[in-house]
């Protein structure tokens, strides 16, 4: 495969994963990974809350693997067309992604422990502080989204412009 075909294939994977996984995915995964409100009143002991919260861990791992698809595409694009400035930006994306993944997982795990307020007496007030993590997550995700979107746009655009030999429409008259 030539480089242009690989770049096009990566673009076909990158853009849908960016929009569907990063923009719609958080809502879907959050609903799937937290303890449901119907289950919360049934939990009476600390160990039941822990089992319920620990049951969310596989979903959190899957969520972060799915979210990593656009970052992997950027790394592969950078392998095809290496440029020092873009490589630095991609390493920044990876660092921001790691921070966002850790904050998001801690928030979702903590919200499973607190369980919409029902689990508060069983756990440290520190877990209640996880309700503020979405603010930190937004502060990390906004620059991450902007950087990933701009890098994706740069990488998915064709670099070959019109050649000097080509006849321009305004020159034909």
Summary of the model, kept short:
The chain has 173 residues and is mostly helical. It has helices at 3-33, 46-54, 57-67, 69-80, 84-114, 125-128, 133-156.
What does this structure look like?
This protein has 173 residues and is mainly alpha-helical. It has one domain. It is 71% helix and 0% strand. The protein has helices at 3-33, 46-54, 57-67, 69-80, 84-114, 125-128, 133-156. It is elongated. The two termini are 41 Å apart.
Question: Keyphrases for this structure?
Answer:
single chain, mainly alpha, 7 helices, 173 residues, elongated, 0% strand
**How much is the radius of gyration in Å?**
22 Å
> Which ranges are low-confidence, i.e. pLDDT below 50, for 5 or more consecutive residues?
161-166
Structural class: mainly alpha
Number of helices: 7
Query: How many separate domains?
Result: 1
Kindly report how far apart the N and C termini lie. 41 Å
Order of helices and strands: HHHHHHH
* Coarse morphology: elongated
* Strand portion: under 5%
Number of strands: 0
Average pLDDT taken over every residue:
78
Main beta-sheet annotation:
none
């Amino acid at each position: 495969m030539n480089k242009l075909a690989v770049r096009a294939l990566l673009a076909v994977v990158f853009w849908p994963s960016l929009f569907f996984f990063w923009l719609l995915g958080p809502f879907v995964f959050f609903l799937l990974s937290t303890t449901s409100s119907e289950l919360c009143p049934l939990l009476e002991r600390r160990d039941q809350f822990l089992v319920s919260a620990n049951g969310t861990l596989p979903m959190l791992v899957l969520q972060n693997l799915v979210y990593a698809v656009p970052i992997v595409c950027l790394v592969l694009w950078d392998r095809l067309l290496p440029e020092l400035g873009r490589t630095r930006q991609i390493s920044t994306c990876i660092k921001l992604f790691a921070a966002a993944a850790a904050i998001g997982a801690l928030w979702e795990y903590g919200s499973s422990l607190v369980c919409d307020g029902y689990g508060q007496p069983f756990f440290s007030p520190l877990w209640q502080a996880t309700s503020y993590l979405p603010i930190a997550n937004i502060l990390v995700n906004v620059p991450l989204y902007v950087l990933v979107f701009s890098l994706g746009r740069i990488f998915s655009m064709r670099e070959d412009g019109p050649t000097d030999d080509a006849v321009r429409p305004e020159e034909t008259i």
